[in-house]
Amino acid sequence: MADSSNSVFAHLVRAPEDPILGVTVSYNKDTSPLKVNLGVGAYRTEEGKPLVLNVVRQAEQMLVNDTSRVKEYLSITGLADFNKLSAKLIFGADSPAIQENRVTTVQCLSGTGSLRVGAEFLARHYHEHTIYIPQPTWGNHPKVFTLAGLSVKYYRYYDPTTRGLDFQGLLDDLAAAPAGAIVLLHACAHNPTGVDPTVDQWENIRQLMRSKGLLPFFDSAYQGFASGNLDADAQSVRMFVVDGGECLAAQSYAKNMGLYGERVGALSIVCKDADVASRVESQLKLVIRPMYSNPPIHGASIVATILKDRQMYNEWTVELKAMADRIISMRQQLFDAMQARGTPGDWSHIIKQIGMFTFTGLNAEQVSFMTREYHIYMTSDGRISMAGLSSRTVPHLADAMHAAVTKAA
């Protein structure tokens, strides 16, 4: 074997596994037929298989059959139709911001890439370099913003005692933030907790943020996937656009169109007027060009094909609702199973929370017990992906959770 000590990289230490992706690595090594992966944030069918939507297959076939299509580079900002339709999807077709040309939208590499481009832009051109993110939040958020040059601080969000929203803590922390600070908001289906503010609470948040000049940066990874309704899941964002203020929104089509590997996303910045929006776009190009030059064409073409065809759009909404409904059904089945077993504690948060994830309230020791004794894989903070469950695996999970609470507590 070659002597690695001669390598110019010999000083490197092995980096730890990503806490989320590492769950799948461990799961794949397990040979037990009982194993269940509840760590991955990707939709699965009742049979535990990845799903390609019928409407996506149709759109892809149309693109393949179109012999006039070529593989030329897109512009720096991406596919124009995709950008226009993405803005309409999140802000609403009748949005005054769109009608007044106050929105600039650029195609990016899914949600992560959209967040990163937005963060880089803010680090270069916004006067305040502190971003407040919820505690807890998606594990990639602090890394994305820190590496882009922003200073990350946290605001209270989740209350472990109620397994719900710490609304007063949230308001107090945002009220104490410096004027002009950036605030990351999950548009819907908060990851990892599944806990969202009510419409009234969103209105209180909006009023507080606008009064302090805080800049909203929405992460919208689950539009339509949370409730099954595209408009309902975008309501929080639209409240901040209707008031005429400025904001940023990162969109992903990974979940709601099942386009995980296509890396399709968009960053929209809502500005005060059309002239500012035009200047903002010119600077976004300068962020994107040295980063990855321009985005890929295939996934964005699939999205644009579906969004601009009324029949395909309608078919998409039906398939989207079916996915959301299956996850809601898994919540109900798990809650019922916990009730049937008489598991100590209140488990109503399972059906109150929304979206792909549930924050179970289990601790790291209990999670480790479930992995060791029941071959159930999840992140150590007790977050489970409801989409990874099926009617067949719910009883096994309920048995494991019951045992963890009664034996490993």
UniProtKB/TrEMBL annotation:
<keyword id="KW-0663">Pyridoxal phosphate</keyword>
<dbReference type="GO" id="GO:0006520">
    <property type="term" value="P:amino acid metabolic process"/>
</dbReference>
<dbReference type="InterPro" id="IPR000796">
    <property type="entry name" value="Asp_trans"/>
</dbReference>
<comment type="subunit">
    <text>Homodimer.</text>
</comment>
<dbReference type="InterPro" id="IPR015422">
    <property type="entry name" value="PyrdxlP-dep_Trfase_small"/>
</dbReference>
<dbReference type="InterPro" id="IPR004838">
    <property type="entry name" value="NHTrfase_class1_PyrdxlP-BS"/>
</dbReference>
<dbReference type="GO" id="GO:0005739">
    <property type="term" value="C:mitochondrion"/>
</dbReference>
<dbReference type="InterPro" id="IPR015421">
    <property type="entry name" value="PyrdxlP-dep_Trfase_major"/>
</dbReference>
<feature type="domain" description="Aminotransferase class I/classII large">
    <location>
        <begin position="35"/>
        <end position="400"/>
    </location>
</feature>
<protein>
    <recommendedName>
        <fullName>Aspartate aminotransferase</fullName>
        <ecNumber>2.6.1.1</ecNumber>
    </recommendedName>
</protein>
<keyword id="KW-0032">Aminotransferase</keyword>
<keyword id="KW-0808">Transferase</keyword>
<dbReference type="InterPro" id="IPR015424">
    <property type="entry name" value="PyrdxlP-dep_Trfase"/>
</dbReference>
<dbReference type="GO" id="GO:0004069">
    <property type="term" value="F:L-aspartate:2-oxoglutarate aminotransferase activity"/>
</dbReference>
<dbReference type="InterPro" id="IPR004839">
    <property type="entry name" value="Aminotransferase_I/II_large"/>
</dbReference>
<comment type="similarity">
    <text>Belongs to the class-I pyridoxal-phosphate-dependent aminotransferase family.</text>
</comment>
<dbReference type="Pfam" id="PF00155">
    <property type="entry name" value="Aminotran_1_2"/>
</dbReference>
<dbReference type="GO" id="GO:0030170">
    <property type="term" value="F:pyridoxal phosphate binding"/>
</dbReference>
